[in-house]
Amino acid sequence: MLQDLVLALRLQALDRKIATLETGIATLPKHIAEIEKRLEAHKRRLEADRLALAANLRDRKKMDGDIQLHQAKMTKLREQMAAAKTNEHYKAFQNEIAFLEGEVRKCEDKIIVLMEQSEPLEKNVKAAEISLKAEEQDVEAAKIAARDRTAIDQREALELRAERKTIADQMPPKLYTEYERVRKKTKNTPIADATDGRCSACQIALRPQFFQDLRRQDQVMFCESCSRLLTYNPVIDVVADANASQQIA
Q: How far is 158 from 231, CA to CA, in rounded Å?
């Protein structure tokens, strides 16, 4: 095979490796964002549980305040009732006291319900806090691992680019220019095989004379349809070659 084509094949292999590494490097910010997004979702759930628990405590305090207010009113009403001069006034005070006693019982019932609700809320908050702490550690470890992996990829890509330059410098300028033009157009697939008489990339059959010229492998040739560099790599029949050698001997 022509040395120039060998260099082009090596260049294509490097370009594909570099492209793969660059893709991984470029996805780092998105990967980190996805990791942090999962953590933020956990934080929002924890915050919602904390808000629910805080609202529960506020409602209980409000009920306690209402009870104290009702009890203070009842105390005053009893004082006034003791000074009542008619049965009508006395009964009116009794009715108002009975109403306030009913309100106190309602508040006490609500407090019991709220206390029952607060217990699972407190457990949820404590469990979520413990889980969040563990998840924060996992996320930080994942971010460090991702950055370390990217640093390794960046170093490898740098080394591959240096190797690529060395190979590119050995290629004839005209061939390298054509290689680059086709590479950019075909997304790092500038070379195709034509061993079976057609371009393996575009699947267009080669003209008979063109194919015969390609088989001689004495020049770099390009597909007349997709412009890729063409290789001719027939499978070696080891048994047939051995038999032929024995016959010659």
A: 29
Measure the CA–CA gap between 134 and 149, rounded to whole angstroms.
23
Kindly report the length of the chain: 249
| Contact (Cβ atoms closer than 8 angstroms) between residue 63 and residue 96 | no
What six digits make up the tokens of 7? 């260099």
208-246 tens-digit pLDDT: 999 999 999 899 999 999 999 999 987 544 344 344 334
Structural domains of the chain, count: 2
CATH number of the domain where residue 95 is located: 1.10.287.1490
Average pLDDT on 126-140 reads 88
- pLDDT tens figures, 175-218: 999 999 999 999 999 999 999 999 999 999 999 999 999 999 89
89 and 147 part of one domain = yes
- Could you tell me if 115 and 211 lie in one domain? no
Rounded to 10 deg, the angle between the 28-82 and 87-170 helix axes is 170
Structure tokens belonging to residue 190: 């500038």
- Looking up tokens 């079976």 gives 196
Q: Which domain range does residue 205 map to?
A: 173-248
Look up the pTM and report it. Answer: 0.62
Q: Are residues 158 and 89 in the same domain?
A: yes
Q: 34: which residues sit within 8 A by CB, 6+ positions away?
A: none
204 and 115 within one domain = no
For residues 165 and 180, membership in a common domain is answered with: no
If we measure between CA atoms, which residue out of 6, 21, 20, 14 comes closest to residue 150? 21
- Tokens linked to 130: 């413990």
What number of other Cβ atoms are within 10 A of residue 107's Cβ? 20
